[in-house]
TrEMBL record:
Family from the record: Belongs to the class-I pyridoxal-phosphate-dependent aminotransferase family.
Lineage: Eukaryota, Viridiplantae, Streptophyta, Embryophyta, Tracheophyta
Further facts: In eukaryotes there are cytoplasmic, mitochondrial and chloroplastic isozymes.
Record protein name field: Aspartate aminotransferase
NCBIfam families reported for this sequence: PRK09257.1
A matching Pfam family: Aminotran_1_2
GO MF entries: L-aspartate:2-oxoglutarate aminotransferase activity; pyridoxal phosphate binding
One Gene Ontology cellular component: mitochondrion
EC number(s) on file: 2.6.1.1
Aminotransferase class I/classII large domain sequence ranges: 52-417
Matching InterPro entries: Aminotransferase_I/II_large (IPR004839), Asp_trans (IPR000796), NHTrfase_class1_PyrdxlP-BS (IPR004838), PyrdxlP-dep_Trfase (IPR015424), PyrdxlP-dep_Trfase_major (IPR015421), PyrdxlP-dep_Trfase_small (IPR015422)
Gene3D superfamilies, A to Z: Aspartate Aminotransferase, domain 1, Type I PLP-dependent aspartate aminotransferase-like (Major domain)
Amino acid sequence: MAISNSFTGKLLRRGSADGVRLMSSWFRNVDQAPKDPILGVTEAFLADQSPNKVNVGVGAYRDDNGKPVVLECVREAEKRIAGSQFMEYLPMGGSIKLVEESLKLAYGENSDFIKDKRIAAVQALSGTGACRLFAAFQQRFHPGTQIYIPVPTWSNHHNIWKDAGVPLKTFRYYYPESRGLDFSGLMEDIKNAPNGSFFLLHACAHNPTGVDPTEEQWREISSLIKAKGHFPFFDMAYQGFASGSPERDAKAISIFLEDGHLIGLAQSYAKNMGLYGQRVGCLSVLCEDEKQAVAVKSQLQLISRPMYSNPPLHGALIASTVLGDPELKKLWLEEVKGMADRIIGMRATLRENLEKRGSPLPWQHITDQIGMFCYSGMTPEQVDRLTNEFHIYMTRNGRISMAGINSGNVGYIADAIHQVTKSA
Ligand SMILES: Cc1ncc(COP(=O)(O)O)c(C=O)c1O
């Protein structure tokens, strides 16, 4: 090949003797990254050949036949938008219609904050992207200030704020003995955090525990956060999916708004509209006035522009079509309630099945907890036994995705759980 006569060819032949390195060598020492604790479960599940295998690891909704679901409202929205839309870029801040609908859903249809244009908001790459964008914004404009995240929390929260260069601290949240909220620990940690800290709160259906504060507890949390001058950032990945009512699931937010907080908020349509892979979400920051909101929005766009330029179009069109059409929105509300109700029903059936088998352990927390996950209280060793002996896959923290349980497998799962926990 002509290369041997070329300047490049000569350089290559002289090679490392002259200190010239092939470009492949700079990543020679890169180690394999650790597996993601959640996505790694799916990999192991897929590799298992057993006909009995069950995946209750990943938080994706399945129907009572164990099948993924495309909501009817989404199918109808897709029909309506098919071919009718151009495929140009969205603006940097994403679909204006999607953002408007998202704000109405979270802050209330008749919110004064919306009317007064006090909310800076952009379409985001689902809930993860909204959190990541906020973390970058926090790092840029309030550098060095830590964010407190609950123990435990969705494992990606750690990565998101760490990668954005924000120092992380934790606050107590879950009390293993009661399998419920460590309310006094949580309040103490909020009180002891330096004034003006950031606090990450799950708006509803806390992941992984399924344990949410009561309304009264939210009021106390809100007062204390206000007294301390902390900044609350809400991650709302499950609005509507927890109780079946988007309004009820946004109660914590409305309490904070009533109390006069400025807030940050991540919204996702992955679970409540089943748009997982479409990556549709919204990041909003409630500001003091319109001028500030305009400035904050412009800075959020400035951060997103070099990251991904502008967000994707298709999912935004689906979600905004559903939310913007009264008929489709009504259908969505019914369907999201249907998903929530199936999960609530499965909680009762799983508990009943465990109790029926004479399990000596208390299982009330299965029905007390809410949302997609049940924090079962099983140890990592018990989870290992479930996987190795019964082909049931979940994260080693004992988190069960209730969405993966159905009438066909609930008996098998209860049996297996009983077998691995009965001598505990
Ligand atoms: C608490 C929480 N936040 C955010 C997300 C982000 O999901 P997505 O990026 O798919 O919207 C999830 C998903 O599991 C979650 O549980």
